[in-house]
Design a protein that fits this description.
By secondary structure, the chain is an alpha/beta fold. It contains eleven helices and eleven strands. It has helices spanning 70-76, 103-117, 129-140, 159-170, 179-189, 195-205, 220-225, 239-245, 263-269, 288-291, 293-307; strands at residues 31-38, 41-48, 55-59, 81-85, 122-127, 145-151, 175-176, 206-208, 214-216, 250-255, 277-281. The longest helix is centred in the middle third of the chain and has 15 residues, at 103-117.
């Protein structure tokens, strides 16, 4: 499918003001961009690799989108069929028709994509918000998820991390006077991530305004729904209970300097599931694969080799 800039592509409904598809098409041969409908809501996903290779599904974190997984999936595409989904309200996916955001709705996006792809069994990888969504999905769909990778998140957040996330969300301007100002904001928010990564990522997280400047592709309601003293507010959806029901092997990945996940939490998490383990990636914060791509792949690839085939 081509790039339906106005949301009016074949088979897709036009959306209301303030929402639009990507303003830049993906031209690299290694990645394919597609859309599906969950109900009447268009969801964007990306694919790398041969469709006959072992399938691996990637979910991004809060405020991110499918494109954050591009560096990882490009390195895996010679062995795996990698698919990354932009959850509702994020990236080039449409906003939530229900006008709310929670794990159940995010999981329904995953279910719609899996059905669209015709997958029977796959490995599920999720970062941050995507990690929690992955835990919930895997525990409720044991017949589908062969193995689970949870990247730098636990069912509960340490207070310091919760308030950092709250502060970051509150400091996100609604709009920027220039594209460069938007890029500088992203660079400042992720000091451990190489600048070139941020500059490329900006095309997928932001959109240019007709009057000049830039704003987020993220649905503003996501920020409103997920702000509060107990970030994220619906994190009390029983994620620990979901872990207790987990039947598949799990790898928990922690960034060395992350304030989101402690070694103690990792130990508790891997006490659930079959054959579960955890690993720490050096020189990495919460954005593990952005900060140290080689280090992240060094712990991910052996796990995939063991469980994805």
């Amino acid at each position: 499918m081509g790039c339906p800039y106005d949301g009016g592509g074949v088979g897709l409904p036009r959306r209301g003001p303030g929402w639009q598809f990507a303003s830049r098409c993906v031209s690299m041969a290694a990645v394919r961009s597609g859309y599906l409908l969950n109900g009447d809501n268009p969801l964007n996903y990306l694919e790398w690799g041969d469709a006959d290779s072992p399938p691996v599904l990637f979910l991004h974190g809060l405020t991110d989108c499918a494109y954050v997984w591009q560096p990882v999936c490009e390195r895996l595409a010679d062995r795996y069929h990698c698919v990354a989904l932009s959850l509702r309200g994020h990236g080039d996916s449409g906003p939530s028709p229900e006008r709310q955001y929670n794990f159940q709705l995010f999981a329904s996006d995953v279910a719609a994509l899996v059905q669209h792809l015709g997958w029977q069994r796959f490995v599920l990888v999720g970062h941050s918000l995507g990690g929690r969504t992955s835990i919930a999905y895997a525990s409720n769909n044991p017949q589908q998820v062969k193995a689970l990778v949870v990247v730098d998140v636990a069912p509960g957040l340490p207070k310091e991390a919760a308030w950092r996330i709250k502060s970051n969300m509150e400091s996100m301007p609604e709009r920027f006077e220039s594209w460069q100002a938007a890029v500088e904001h992203l660079v400042a928010a992720r000091p451990g991530t190489p600048r070139r990564v941020i500059e490329e990522r900006a095309f997928y997280l932001l959109r240019r305004l007709p009057e000049g400047g830039a704003t987020w592709k993220l649905d503003p309601l996501v920020r409103q729904e997920w702000l509060g003293p107990d970030l994220p507010p619906r994190a009390t959806a029983d994620v620990w209970g979901a872990l207790e029901r987990l039947q598949c092997p799990m790898l928990v990945v922690k960034g060395e300097t992350s304030d989101t996940l402690s070694a103690e939490l990792c130990e508790r998490m891997v006490s659930f599931g079959r054959n579960s383990r955890w690993a720490e990636v050096p020189r990495a914060s919460h954005w593990v694969f952005d900060d140290n791509l080689d280090g992240f792949l060094a712990v991910l690839e052996p796990f995939l080799a063991e469980h994805a085939g």
